[in-house]
Structures are given as C-alpha cells and as structure tokens.
Amino acid sequence: KNYKITLLSGDGIGPEIMQVAVSVLQAIAPKFNLTFAFEAALAGGSAFDATGHPLPAETLALCQSSDAVLLAAVGGEKWDTLPSHLRPEQALLGLRAGLGLFANLRPAKILPQLIDASTLKREVIEGVDILVVRELTGGIYFGLPKGIFTDENGVRRGVNTMAYTEPEVDRIGRVAFESARKRQSTLCSVDKANVLDVSQLWRERITKLGAEYPDVKLSHMYVDNAAMQLLRYPKQFDVIVTGNLFGDILSDAAAMLTGSIGMLPSASLGEPGKPGVFEPVHGSAPDIAGKDLANPLAQVLSAAMMLRYGLNESAAADYIEQAVTKVLDSGKRTGDIMASGCEQLGCKAMGEALLAA
Amino acid sequence: KNYKITLLSGDGIGPEIMQVAVSVLQAIAPKFNLTFAFEAALAGGSAFDATGHPLPAETLALCQSSDAVLLAAVGGEKWDTLPSHLRPEQALLGLRAGLGLFANLRPAKILPQLIDASTLKREVIEGVDILVVRELTGGIYFGLPKGIFTDENGVRRGVNTMAYTEPEVDRIGRVAFESARKRQSTLCSVDKANVLDVSQLWRERITKLGAEYPDVKLSHMYVDNAAMQLLRYPKQFDVIVTGNLFGDILSDAAAMLTGSIGMLPSASLGEPGKPGVFEPVHGSAPDIAGKDLANPLAQVLSAAMMLRYGLNESAAADYIEQAVTKVLDSGKRTGDIMASGCEQLGCKAMGEALLAA
Ligand SMILES: CC(C)[C@H](C(=O)O)[C@@H](O)C(=O)O
Ligand SMILES: CC(C)[C@H](C(=O)O)[C@@H](O)C(=O)O
C-alpha cells in the first residue's frame, strides 16, 4: 500500500520532532508492506513569514489531496502581536474547517513508567486511561454572529455564538459511542444543560443516540462538575464526549493529569475516507527549538495514531507504540520526562533509540 | 449595628448547616456590638414544592430589602425532571440577576490541617491560596439570542450567545484589581482571545484597566492553559479574573484542588451598598440530608465572608475564621474531611465545637 502523507512541521521544535517521526515511519514501512510518499508544506508562523498567510491555499490543497496529514506544532511569541486572522493558530482552525475535521480524539493515558511525573498522587492516577472526543468544527469556535459591535451609545460589545444543530451532535455522538465500544463501553457526555439551551439540545440528542448503543453505559455531567471529577477521581472516566469549547478545556486538563504532555498525541478526523490530521497535544516550545532537547515521542505516537485511525493500519500502529514502550522501559528519557536513575537523551538520540527498538 | 439578614436554607442539608451558621453569628454578635434580624425565606426545590416557583417573588423582594443574604444550597434529584425554568438552580440565576450580583468571589485556599485531603501531591498544593473572581451576570449565561430554533428543513439548532460589553468587563475588572491589591497584587485574566471576539474585547479592556493599577502584576492566560496550569503549578496564581462560564469551570477546578469542598465559602456581590449573597461552594447533598452528617464549616465561613464583604465587619469575620481554625487544630472533623487520628463529629456537634471555640 502506498500512502501520500502531508507533513506540516510548523514552528519551534516542529521540524526536529517531525524528522524523528518520519524516520520511524520509514523504518517500519517495509515490515508492513507500506510505502509513504511524504510531501512537506508550510503552516503556522513559518508559513506567514514565507507567504504572508499562516495557512497558504497550496498547503490546504495539498492536505486535501493526501491520505493523511502529520502536523507538528505551530506558534510562538514572534507572531503574537499579529492581528488574530494572521496568527499561527489560524492554521489549525483553517485545517479543521477546510478538511471538515469534526472529531478530535485526545487520549490521556497514564504510562506506568511516567506515573511520577503527575502532580496527582499515585493512587489517584494509576491506571487512568481517558479518551476525550471533542467536537471540532462547530460550537462557539465557528458560530455566527460573531464580532465586536458598537451600539448607538458608542459602547462596544464582543459577541460569539455557541450553536449546535442536531446533525452536528449526532455525528460526533456516533464517533464517541463507537470509540467507547472499542474500549470500556462507558461514555460520559459533558455539557452545561442546566444553563445553556445548546446543551439541552446536545443532551437530548446524545440520550436519543444512546438507544442505538444499549451496550454502552451512558452518563451526563455538567462541565463544572467534570472539571472537578477529573481531579477528584479520574479513573471513573473512559470516553468523554463534549463540544468544541468544553473539549478544549477538559482535554487539556485531562492531558495535564498525566504530567507529561510531551507524550500525548491526538487525531482530528473528518468523514470516513477523507484525510485526518494527527498532531501532538503539546505546543511548539520556541524556547528549546533547535537545541536538540525536544521530546519527539508525542509526534511519534501521533504517527501511530495516523496509522491506526487515518490509514487503518493498526498492526503498524501497535508496532510503533511498542517501540515507545520499550524505550521507556529501558530507562531512556528526554529532559521533560527525566527522572532519577534514568538516562537523559536529546531529540535525535531518542529517535535513534526508537529505531533500535 | 443592626443588620437584616435573609436566610435561604434551600434544600437537602441546607437547613442543618444554616442552623449552625446562625448559631455562630448569634454567639459572636454581642462581642462586636452587632444585632442580627434574621428572616427566613423559601428558595430552590422546597420553594417550588410550596409555591410552584423556585424563586418566589416574595423571596426576591425580601432579599432586596435586606443587608445581606445567607444562602445554603439548592437542588436535588427530586426536581431534576422539571422543565428547566422551574428547576432549583433557577433560584440562583434569579438571585444573581435580581440583585445584580455581578462579582462572584471564590477563594480556594489549602488549609494546612486538611492538606492530605487533596488528590494532588503535598509539595504541589502546599500554600496554594487562589481567589477566583468570576463575572456572574453576563456572558453566555444571560446573552441573547438564546433558545432552540428550527430551520426551514425542520432541523433544530441550539443557540446561546456569549457577550460582554465594555462596562461589564471594566466593572468586574475593577473588583479583581482591588482584590489583588489586598492580596499578593498578582492578577491573571483568563480568556480565549485566540479564538473568541468577546475575549479579545475582554483582554483589551482588562489590559487598559491595568494601567490604573500599576502596582498589580497583570498577566493573561487562555482558558485551556489555565485549566492545565491549575493542575501543574497552582502556586503561580493569586487572583484569577474571568467570565461567567470560564469562571464556573475554573473555580470548581480550583476548589477541588483543596480536596475539601465542604470547607469552601463564596461571595456574590453587586453594586456597593446593595445586598450580596453568601453561600458554600458545595451542593445540597440530598443523600446525607437530615442525618446530622453534613459539614457546616463552608456555611459558617460563608457567614464570615458575609461579615467581611457584605457588612464590612472584618473583625467579626476574623473571629469566626479563627474559631474554625481552632476547631480544626483540635482534630475535630466531620465525615467528609475525616482523617486518621482525628475525632469524627456530626453537624450539630461540630456547631457546638465552634461555639465552644
Ligand atoms: C490554538 C487553539 C486555537 C486551539 C484550540 O483552541 O482549539 C488549541 O488550544 C487546541 O486545543 O488545539
Ligand atoms: C447551578 C448552576 C446554575 C451554577 C452555575 O453554573 O453558575 C453553579 O454551577 C454555580 O457555579 O454556582
């Protein structure tokens, strides 16, 4: 099988960690009878510097015509003073809209080797394995009207609209129920139905959908309580499904439970058969860019997610994930996850350790 | 001084914990030359049962004509199937709107006696002392348009509007800057300005206001990052100011950091001279209602907040807070905060211990 993969290295540590992920993909390809045609394109701050836009039209077109997109990270202080429609983050929003990536899967799994990296007590986080399914192309991120409006008295008012239609809720709901089926068959839908109309519709549709998935244990939770419960007793969660904004907040909280966001991949999926985007949860870390200090493992695990969810090559995905486990078991660590008794490696050396494993 | 206090005991454990708070207020009154005229009114599920509405007009009128409102907790499964405009929570939203309570102060302070109750490691939470200043009468809670609308194809769409005007931001901003001045003079404003127009206006106004408070160290943080940072390194925060929805989520997360939400009070304030509402952060805990098991300390500390922020009687507030400290120091605990080596008390006995202290 031959796959066309668009590589968006982005900014900061992006290029270094991307290089490791690509070398890993190349190394495992023959084993699984795969070939990859990689094509690099510009996105984020570096794209703005080169073309005046964070997501050039050619980049989006290339992504649309590929089988999957592997993205590293975008952003950096350098571009923070740009008007918001030109900032690096717009590349993410543009990709989500342009590729119809309505489903964002963010696993937050405690790796036994890194359990001490968490700020939570061992007994609280041991065994935590949460998948946040976040709606990614609707809600307040894209709702209209939006803007800053001036009333007759010259007073300005900032406005955004949080909205979901029934089909939008059903679509992400199905992804969540199907995901739960492949895991512990437990789904918690998070909303703010005690205050928001949009959440009432959300809850009604998810409940209705639940009838089609009687094998999945469905519960509902308010978003404020969910933020508490993630801290209080995170083991209660298997799959969480929620809207764009709540998912942004809760998936970051869930990620931080692990204490090692340098380890966490994510997948953003559209309609079946369309290309997804696979990227680490962490940012572009401009402070350590180019210093061979970055942790490439989230990028490598994002490549594994690409194989599993984007290309349906789960054997190859398993193989990469096992290599990561092996390297961690052998005590090799980058600086961000370093612990006493372990061996500290740079980004490149970590890549070599992965290839050896 | 004579103060007219409206008591809203609400539902569940409300009456038991309110009784303790009232007895404490009565006990300290002579010491500070205060007299309290308490008047009880219905709110929440019990008000619905008695009058058909969770916030009867007489209750709101009584609150409006008093010097302060002491509220316990509302809600319970019994009323969960009511249409949303009749549910107990509407009493809270109605009080906030009816009394113009635009500023919600939620302290989350680690008490050294209870540090082990936290799910976070001791070294991470030791000394944490955060005040969340949440805007309470604007944002997506009250923004229009809202509702569930059906389009020409019969597809329904749930809609809420997140909006802030300049004066709304300035008003809560001032409360936050003033609060920071009385503490560590460090203020973190939380928004989602990389995506939301309403947050861009928010950030612009808070920044502008910052020029009037050059002694306060102001920073800005995105809400997803704030949810992470509360877990990663909570000691970095002094005062957090944010909108209604983000404040709902983050103040609950901050509260849960302490591990003992049975200890946390809150204050909701309107314009100076108007009555505020003072209530615990915890809920009505219907499962333990009437069993003399509830922890009355958050209610008692809410009475202290009432004295401090609502009635400007800080000496009396200090006195109550010291009594709580003494009782904890002596090893007395209710069930929710019980630890080995401590003495477990019921709600009433805890009240008596407070009176003795
Ligand atoms: C950078 C920002 C626009 C983005 C979001 O809010 O979705 C990020 O926080 C994320 O979660 O991918
Ligand atoms: C009960 C609910 C309406 C309320 C809110 O969302 O404001 C509660 O969560 C709170 O924080 O006081």
Automatic annotation (TrEMBL), chains A, B:
InterPro entries: IsoCit/isopropylmalate_DH_CS, IsoPropMal-DH-like_dom, Isopropylmalate_DH. This is 3-isopropylmalate dehydrogenase. It catalyses: (2R,3S)-3-isopropylmalate + NAD(+) = 4-methyl-2-oxopentanoate + CO2 + NADH. The record marks Y141, K192 as: Important for catalysis. Residues 4-354 form the Isopropylmalate dehydrogenase-like domain. The gene is leuB. Belongs to the isocitrate and isopropylmalate dehydrogenases family. LeuB type 1 subfamily. Homodimer. Its main location: cytoplasm. GO terms for cellular component: cytosol. PANTHER family: 3-ISOPROPYLMALATE DEHYDROGENASE. Mg(2+) binds at D224, D248, D252. It comes from the Bacteria. NAD(+) binds at residues 76-89, 283-295. Pathway: Amino-acid biosynthesis; L-leucine biosynthesis; L-leucine from 3-methyl-2-oxobutanoate: step 3/4. SMART domains: Iso_dh. Substrate binds at R96, R106, R134, D224. NCBIfam families: leuB. Binds 1 Mg(2+) or Mn(2+) ion per subunit. Its EC number is 1.1.1.85.
